[in-house]
Amino acid sequence: MHFKFVHAADLHLDTPFRGVAAQGPLLGRFQESTFRALSRIVDLCLRERVAFLLLAGDLFEVKDRSVRARLVLRRELGRLHDAGIESFIVHGNHDPLSGDTGTLGLPSSVKVFGPDWEEAEVRREGRRLCRVQGISYPDVEVRDDLSARFRRTGDGFSVGLLHANLGGAEGHANYAPCTPAGLGARGLDYWALGHVHTRAELLLPGGGIAVYPGNPQGRHALETGERGCVLVEVEDGGMRRRFVPVDTVRWHRLEVPLTGVATLDALLGTVGEVVDAACARELDGHAVRLVLTGRGPLHRELARPGALAQLEADLRARLAQGHPPVLLESLRDGSRPELDWEALQAEGGFARTLLEEARALEEDPVALARLWEQEALGSLGQRLKRLGVDVLETPRMEWVSRASLLGVEALHEEEEGA
Amino acid sequence: MKPGLRIDTLRVRRFGHFSDLTLELGPGLHLLYGPNEAGKSTLLAFLRAVLFGFEKRGSPERYAPAEDDAPFGGELRLSTGMGPLLVRRMAAPRGRKSETLTVLGPDGEPVSEERLKEARGHVTRELFFDVFAFRLEELAGFEQLTEERGASEALVAASMRGARRLPEAMTLLRKNAEQLYKPNGSNPELNVKLRELEEVQEQLREVGNRPALYFSKRERLEALGVELGGLDSRVREDGRELERLARLESALGEVSSLATTRAELESLPSLETFPEGGEARLEEALQRSGSYRAEVARLAERLVSTEAELKRLSAPSPVRGREDALRAAVAAYSERSELVRALPARRAALGMKRRQVESALEELGLGVDGPGLVALDLSAGARAGLEALSSRLDVEETGRREVGGALARARSERERLEGVLARTESELAELPEVRPAQVRQQQAGLARMRVARADLERLGEQKMEARRRIEGLRGPVTELPSASSPVIPVWLVPVAAAVAVTLAVAAWLLGGTGVGVLGLVGGLVLTGLLEFARRKVESSRDAERETREAQQQSRKQEEERLRVELAGYVAREELARRELLASATDAGLSPAATSADMTARESALEEALEQAGRRESLSRERDTLRATHDLALRDERQADELLRGHEARHASLSAELNACLSARRFPAGLPAQAALALWRDASALRQRWQDLVADEAALSADEAACADVVSRLRALAADMGQGGARPPEVSNLPRMEHERGSANASSTESSTSSSEGVLPSSTGTQRGARAPLSTEHEAATSGASGTAYRGLSQEAPSSQASSSMDLVVMRVNAALEAAREQEAERRAAEERRRELREEKARLDELCRTEEAALAALLAEGGGGDEETFRRRAVQAHRYAELTHRARELAHRIEARTGLSDAEAREALRALGGEEGLRAVLSQVRARHAEAQEKSKEVLTEQGATQNQLEQWENDDLLARLRIQEETLRAKVAELATRYAEDKLALALLGRARRRFEEEQQPRVVQLASEHFALLTEGRYRRVFIPAGDERELRVSDGERDWSAAQLSRGTREQLYLAFRLAVVRDFGETRSALPLIVDDVLVNFDPGRARSAIQLLAQLAEHQQVIAFTCHPWLRELFEAEGAQTQTLESRDSAATLRAV
Fold first, then answer.
1. How big is the A-B interface in CB pairs under 8 Å?
2. Of A348, A376, A389, the CB nearest to B972
3. DSSP label at B894?
4. CB 3.0–4.6 Å: which of A226, B108, B164, B1106 could bond A245 by disulfide?
C-alpha cells in the first residue's frame, strides 16, 4: 500500500505583521504571505498527488476576525476537493470550535474534527488507506491531555491529528500538554501535531513518531529560517518524510560584527553584505533583526543617545528598497561590555551582595511573588493580559537575573566612566 | 586602620577676611581656638572648599572677598596613602566657573584629580560635609540624614566597594521606570501605548465578529435571492393576469356596441346583391342622358346658322380671277415708287452742279471750256517734270545765297587781321633790342658777389675766435703739488709704540701685572690707530696729483687742434676773395662796389629783363598774325569763284521752266510754285466735270424705266374700276391707314421713351440691349410708312401724277384684301358645318347607349321602377354600414383582448359581467403593486448586503487595525519588559542595600552604642535601628527605648555625635581614614560629657586627624588637657594672625 499525505500546522492565516510600513512593497507581501503559504501547500498536494492533507490546528490567527482567512481557506480546500484530495482539520487554541460560526461552508471532502475524539478512514478504490483520528479544541484554554483519548482501533496506518504541547516546549502556552511516553502508549503510527512553531520530530517509544512541521510562514523575529510543511510518503509500513519549505517571506536574526569597522559607511556596507548573504533572492521579501556584536571604533559613537535609532531608521529605509525588499525588524546593540562575573563574585562588595540577593530571590518564588505584587507588576500584568499581552502574566525567574544584570551594569558603568 | 588623608599645612591665600594665613597641622588632635568672628567657620568652609570645591555663587559659605576682583582660595598640603599631595583651589569672585584646581604630586608635578578623589576615599561631598566636617547646627541635621534615602544610600555608597554609583544608579533606574510607566499616570510611554492599544481594541470590538457576521450576511443574501425569485414569478403572473383583465376592460364598450349592431342588422332584409352605389349610378345615368339630349338640340341650331352664313359667303365678286395680275403690277410699282418720287429733285441738283463747274472754269482763267479742259494734257508725267524743275531751281537759289554769306565773312576777317598786325609792328619798334639771357647772367654774378662777401666776413670772425681760444688755453697753468711732504711722518709710529710699551712697563711696575698688561694693550691699540690714520691721508694725496696731470695733458691736445683749425680758415678766406673778383666782373661792377650800388644795379637789371621778355613775346605774336592773314585771303578768293558758278546754273533752269509752261497754255513767267498750284486746280476741275456728265446720263435712264411701270398700273386699275363697283371699305382705307400710322408713331414714341428710361439703369445685358434695337427697328419701319403716307398726302397737290398713282395702288390693294378675307370666311364656315354634323351623329349614338344602360341598372336593382330602386338603395346603404361596423368592432375586440369576440363575451360572462371584471381587476392590481414593492425592497437589501460582503472581503480597516494592534502589543510588551526590569533592578538594589545595612550596621551601631554609653557616662547603654524600613535611631537605657526626638537636646546631639564617630571610625577602618573636623559641637554638653567627648576625639585622633574649633576657654582647657595642639586665631580686628601656644 503506497500513499502520500501532507502535514501542516499553525497556518495562522491573515497574521498581522507588526512594524511593516504602510507604504512600499513590503506590507502587501507580508500580508499575503500566510495565504501564499497555504496556496503553496495545496500546490504541493496537487503536485505530489497526495491522498490527504492534515492541518493540525491554529488555522487562523484570531478566531473571529478575518473574513479573508475564511474565504481563502475555503478556496484552497476547494481546489483539493476538486482534485479528489481529502482534508482533515483540527482546531487549536487560536481558532477553537467555540469561535467557529459553523457556517464555514467548506467542501464536503473536508473533515473537521469535533471536540470529542473521532476517527475517519481514508479510502481509495474501495480499500482503506489510513485511519485519521483527531480532536479539536472546544475552547482556548485546554489544559487536559487530549492525546489520552486517542487509541489504535485496528490494523493499518493510523494518524493522530492534534494541537498539543509535547513535553512542555518552552515559549508556547502549555495547552493540551502531553509527553512522548503518553503518545507512544497510544500506539499510533504518526502523530501529526501542531502548536509548536519550530519544526521537530520525535521518535516515540513503541515505534511511532510525533512530528511538528512548524508553521509554514514565519511571523516574527523569533521564527527565523525556512518554514514549511512535511510531505509523508507511506509504503508497506515504511515511512519517508520530507520537509518542504513554502514560506514566501523569511525572518532572520543576523549578527553584524563591529570589530574593525571604523566608519558608519563601512558599517552600512557590512550590514549590506550580511543581509545580502542571508536573504535569498527568490523569496518575496525578508525581515531581519540585526544585532551589532563585538567592540570596535564605532562603539562609542553608537553609544550616543539617539545614534542607534538614527542608524536603524536609515537602515530600514535603505533595506526596504532592496530586491527583494527587506524589512528591518529592529537593530539591537549586542556590543555591550561584558562584565566579568566571576571577578565580581570573587571581589565581593556591593555587586556581590546584589547578585546574592538576586539568587536568593530566584530560589524563593514566594518572595518573588511578593516583590512582584509589591512593585505593582502583577496589576500591570493583569492589565496587559486583558489587552492580549501576556508578557508580565507571571513573575518569571529570568526577569530577576536580567534585573540583577541591569543593576550590576548600572553600578558598573561607574568604573567605566571613572 | 586604612591609610587615609591628613592635612599637614593649610595656606589661605585669600578667603573670607583671611589673606596669606598659613597654618601648620599634622597628625593627632588639633584645636583652633578663637573668639567669635575670628574666622573658625571660615576656616571650616575653607577646608571643605579646597577639598570639595567652592560653594555656589551667592552662597555665604563661598566666602568670596567682597572688596575686589582678585582671585581667592588657597592650598592644602596633604599626606595620603600614596604620598603627599598639594591641593590648590582658586576662583575669581565674579567669574563664572572660574574655579581652578591644581593637584601636585610629591615632587611638585601636577597629577590628576583622581588622586585627590582616591585620597578622599571616594566619599561624596554630602557625606563628608555631614559626617566628617560639620558644625553644631549640622550635628542635629543628622536626623534627616538617617531618614532620607539619599543619604542612606550615600552611606552605603561611601562605605562599600562597588556601590559608589548606587545613588545615581537608583535615581537613573527610578527615572527610567517613571518615564516608562506610572500606574496612575497618563504621559509615560507605556501608559500612552496602553491607551492606544485599548482604543484600537475598542475599535476592533466595535467591528465585531466579522466571520460570523459575514456568513450570516451571506446566508441572508442567499435567502434574499430565493425570496426575490418567488416575488419575481408572482409579479410576472399578476402582471399577465392584470394585462388580460385590463384588455378585457378596455374592450367592454366595443362588445356592447357590437351586440346592438348585430341586432339591427338582423332586422334588415337580405341586400347582399344590391348593386353597389346603385342610386348614384342611377342619378348619374339619368343626368347623362339628359345632357346628351340638350347637346343634340344645340348642335342642330348651330348647324342651321352655319348653313345660312355659307350661303351668304358664296355670292360672286369682280376681283376674283384677276388677283395675280393686279398683285404683280402693284409690286412693280412699289419697287420703283421711291425712284419716281426722287426724279425731279435729282434733275434740279444736276443743273445746279453744272452751273457751279462752269463758273469755276471761268475763274481758272485758262481760257478753255469744259471739253477743252478735258482735252488738255494734265498727265502725271508732265506734272512730275514741272515739279523736278521747280525743286532744282530752289536748290540753286539756296546755294547762291550761302556762298554770298561766306564771301562777306572772309572779307571782314581779312580786314580785321590787317589792323592787328599793324598795331603789333608799331609796338615792337618801340622796345630795345636786349636778350633776357644776358641780363640773367649779370644777375647771377651779382648774387655770387654777395655770397662771397658774406663768406669773407664770416671767416674773419671765425679766425678771430680761434685766435682768442688759443690765447685762453695758454693762460692758466697750475703747479702740481709735491709728493715729498707727508702729513704725518713714518717714524712717529714706532715712536708711539715705544712710548706705549714704556708706559706699560711703568704701569706694571707701579700697579702690578694687571695694570701693566692693560696699559700695554691700550698703548698698542692707540699706536695701531695712528698708523692707520697716516696711511689714509697719503693715499688721498696721491689720487689728487694724478688727476691734475691728466688735466694738463688734455689742454695741450686742445691747443694743437685749434691751430690746425686756424690755418684752414686762412685758406678758405683766399678762395672767397677770388670768387668775389670773378663775380664782380660778371655783374659789371667793380669788386669794391658798395652794397647801394649793388642794389641799384639789381633793380636796373630786373627792368631790363622784363622788357626783353616783352619783346620776345611780341615778335612771336606778329609771326602768327601774318600766317592767319594769308589764310583769310585764300578763303575769300575761293568764295568768289563758287558764287559765279551758282548764278550761271540758275539762269539755265529758269529758261527751261518758261518753255514748259508755254506748252501747257499756262501764262508765261509764272513762278514755279504758282504754276504748280494752277496745275492742281485745273486737274480737280476736270475731275468734277467728268462726274457731272456721268450723273446726267444715269438720270435720263431712270426716267425712262419709271414711265413704263406707271403706265401699266394705270391700265389695270382702269380695268378693275370698270369691272365692278368699288367696295365701300376701299374709300375708307386711307383714313384708317392714317389713324393706324399715328397710333404707331405714338406707341413708338412711348416705347422709345420707356426704353430710354430703362437704358441707364440697365447694365447692358443682351436682352436690354436688344429690346431698344427691335423697338427702334419697328419704329423705323412704321415711321417710314407713316412718313410715306404723309409725303403722299402733302405732295398730292404738287405732283399730281405720283399721288394719283398712290391712290390707285391703295384701292387695288383694298379690293384684293377684301376678296381674300371673304374666301377665308367661307372655308371656315364649311369646315364648321362638317364638324357639327359629325358631332350630332356621335351624340345620337351616346343617347341610345345610355338608355339601354339605365334599363339594365333598374333591372339589377330588383325593382322594376325607379322609385322602388331608390327605396332599396337607402336600405342597402344602411346594411353595408352596419356590416362594416360589426366587422370593425370585432377587429377591435380582437386587437385589444387577443380573443375573438365570442371568446371575449364568454370570458366576460365567466368573470360575472362588467361588475365582476372591475372587482377582480382592482383586486389583482393591488396584489401586483404590493408584490412589486416587496420585490424592490428585497432587491435593495440584496444590493446592500452584497456591498457589505464585498467590503468585508476586501477589508482594509480590519487589517490595518490588526497590524496596529499587533504593533502596539509588541511595543507594550517591550516597554513593560523594560519597566519590569527596571523595577526589579531597583528592588534588588534596595534589597541589597538593606542587606548591606543589616550586615554592616551592627558594627556601626555597636560602635555608636559604645560611644554613646561613654558620652552619657553609662546613662544609655545601647543604640539601635529597629527592623523594617523605618530608618530611625533609637536608644535604650536597659529598661525602655527612646527615640531621638524624645531625648533632650544635648543628649540628642551626643547620640548623633556618637553615631557619626562610629561611622567615621568604621569608614576609617574599612575604607579610608579621613580627618574629622568639628566646629564647636560640644557647647550644649555639660562639662563631664564634654570631657568624655573630647576623650573620644582624642582616641580617634590616634588613628586619624581630628581638627576642632571652639571659642570657649573651658573647652580649650579640656582639649589641652587631652593633649590637643592648640592654635589661637586672633579676632578679626587685630590682624588675622595665628599664635602658636
1. 191
2. A389
3. H
4. A226
Counting every residue, how long is chain A? 418
Element (H, E) at B795: helix B766-795
Instruction: DSSP for B978-1031, please give it.
Output: HHHHHHHHHHHHHHHHHHHHHHHHHHHHHHHHHHHHHHTTTS--EEE--SSS--
Interchain CB distance below 8 Å, B985 and A406: yes
DSSP line for A337-397: PPP-HHHHHHH-HHHHHHHHHHHHHHT-HHHHHHHHHHTTHHHHHHHHHHTT--TTSS--H
Per-residue pLDDT of A195-217, as tens digits, reads 888 899 988 888 889 999 999 99
Q: What's chain B's length in residues?
A: 1141
Closest A-chain CA to B991: A357
Q: How many CB atoms lie within 10 A of CB B586?
A: 16
Q: Which phi and psi angles does B1140 have, rounded to 5°?
A: -80, 140
Closest CA to B321 of B829, B815, B808: B815
SS (H, E, C) B536-573: HHHHHHHHHHHHHHHHHHHHHHHHHHHHHHHHHHHHHH
Model pTM score:
0.46
Read off the DSSP letter of residue B727: P
> In this complex, do A67 and B218 lie within 8 Å of one another by their Cβ atoms?
no
Q: Cell for B1014?
A: 561613654
Using one digit for the tens of pLDDT, what is the confidence trace for B989-1035? 888 877 777 776 677 788 888 889 988 888 888 887 765 555 667 88
Calpha distance A268→A310 (Å, rounded): 12
Strands (E), B246-378: none
- In the block, cell 568624655 appears at B1092
Q: Closest Cα partner for A182 from A214, A139, A151?
A: A151
Which residue of B195, B207, B962, B997 is the best one to mutate when testing the A interface, meaning the one whose CB has the most A CBs within 10 A? Answer: B962
Decide if A349 touches B, using CB distance below 8 A: yes
Residues 6+ apart with CB under 8 A from B631: none
Distance from CA of B183 to the nearest CA of A (A): 8
For residue B484, what pLDDT is reported? 53
Closest C-alpha among B175, B126, B134 to residue B152: B126
**Model pLDDT for residues B26-64, shown as the tens digit of each residue:** 889 999 998 888 888 889 999 999 998 888 877 777 887
Please report where in the chains the cell 542595600 appears, as a residue: B993
How many other C-beta atoms can be found within 10 angstroms of the C-beta atom of residue A280?
10
pLDDT tens-digit map of A113-159? 888 999 999 888 888 889 999 999 888 788 888 888 998 888 888 99
CB atoms within 10 A of CB B75: 19
Distances, alpha carbon B1036 to alpha carbons B1020, B1021, B1040, B1042, in Å: 6, 6, 6, 6
Question: How many CB atoms are located within 10 Å of the residue B319 CB?
Answer: 20
